[in-house]
Amino acid sequence: MTSALHALPALRFVDQGGPQLSAKKGVLELQQMKRAGEKIAWLTAYDYPTATFEEQAGVDMILVGDSLGMCVYGYPGTVPVTMDQCIVHCEAVRRGAPNTFVVGDMPFMSYQASDEDAVRNAGRFLKEAAVDAIKLEGGVRVISRIKAILDAGMVVCGHIGLTPQSSGQLGGHKAQGRTLESARLVVEDARAIAAAGAQLLLLEAVPPEVAAFIRAELPIPVLGIGAGAEVDGQLLIVSDVLGTFQAFTPKFVKKYADIAGVSVAALTEYVRDVRAAAFPEDEHCYHMLEGEEERFAAFVEGGV
Ligand code: KIV
For ligand 1, what atom is nearest to the CA of residue 225? Predict the structure, then answer.
C-alpha cells in the first residue's frame, strides 16, 4: 500500500487543457518563496474531496491537522485524536492532493513521552501516508524530539504560541506573547526551533508585532494562524474558511463560504420533496429493458 501511495503520478488538473505535469513544491521551494517575498498559502484538509479542491485552487501546503478531532469527529478538542486516525486522514489527503506539500500533525502523546516515540510516529506519517513533513507543538521543551526526527531524515515544522494540545497549562485557548515576558518566551522558542534545524515554523495566535520580529530574524519560512500579515504565509482551518464547522469561530478567521448553510438548505429541500412524494421523478428511475415490461406483467398476472 505504501509503495502505491508513493507511486502516485505528479498530475495537476488545471482550468484549461486537462491534466498537466507540474512540479510539486518541496521545502526548498517554500524557503525560496520566503526569500523572494512570495506569500505561502496553507490550509488544513482532512479528506479526499477537500484535498482535490485545494490542489485545484493552488494552495502551496496542506496540513492534516489534529483539529480533525473537532472538525471531523466532533470531539471537544484535539487531545483524544490518535495516530491511527491521523494516518487514515493523511492517506486520503495524499490521494486527493498528490502534487501538494502535505504536513502531518503529530497528535497528543505521539511524541510527548520520548524521542523514540517521536521518531517512530513521525516515521509512520512518511511510510504509511507519504506526507512531506510533520508538525509538532512546543518550543524549547521539545527540542530533543525535533532533533531526533530531523536526525532520522524527516522535514519538521515547529508550532509555537498557542499550542492547543497543552492549552490546559496555558489557561485555555489564549493568544500568547501579549506581554513582554510572554513575547520573550515565544521568541526563545522560535530561535530554539530554528537553531535545531527545523525547516518551517508555525506561529499560532501571537501579536503581529512579535510575529514580524520572528519572521525577520529567522531564515526559515515563518507561517502564521492568527499571527497577522507580517509573516511568510497564512494557515487557516478549512472548516472555518468554508463554514462547515459551526461550534465557534476564532477572531482570526475569515469565512469565505457558508457550506453549512447551503447544505442545510439543500437537505431541508430533500426532506420536503420526499415527504411530498416530489422525489424521485421519472428521470431518476431505471425502467425495465425493452420488451421486459410485458414479460413482467405476464409474470405478475400468472401469480408465479
Ligand atoms: O490541527 C491544526 O489544524 C493545527 C492548527 C490549529 C494550527 O494545528
Answer: 7
The one catalytic residue among 204, 283, 293, 294: 204
Q: Is the CB of 103 under 6 A from ligand 1?
A: no
- Asked if 136 and 159 touch (Cβ cutoff 8 Å), the reply is yes
Q: Measured from the CA of 204, which atom of ligand 1 is nearest?
A: 7
pLDDT digits (tens, 9 = 90+) for 145-163: 999 999 999 999 999 999 9
- Ligand 1 centre to CA of 163 (Å) is 9
pLDDT of 207-264, one tens digit each? Answer: 999 999 999 999 999 999 999 999 999 999 999 999 999 888 899 999 999 999 999 9
Question: pLDDT tens digit string along 22-59?
Answer: 578 999 999 999 999 999 999 999 999 999 999 999 99
Binning pLDDT at 50, 70 and 90, where does residue 17 land? very low
What's the grid cell of residue 263?
447544505
Amino acid residing at 173: H
Beta strands in the chain (DSSP E): 11-13, 19-21, 40-44, 61-64, 101-105, 133-137, 156-161, 200-204, 222-225, 233-236
Could you confirm whether 204 is annotated as catalytic?
yes
| Cβ atoms of 98 and 9 closer than 8 Å | yes
Q: Is 249 helix (H, G, I), strand (E, B) or coil?
A: coil
Q: Is there an atom of ligand 1 within 6 Å of 240 CB?
A: no
Paired residues of 138 in beta bridges = 159
Ligand 1 close to Cβ of residue 225 (< 6 A): yes
Which atom of ligand 1 approaches the CA of 63 most closely?
3
Residues 6+ away with beta carbon under 8 Å from 197: 146, 147, 150, 156
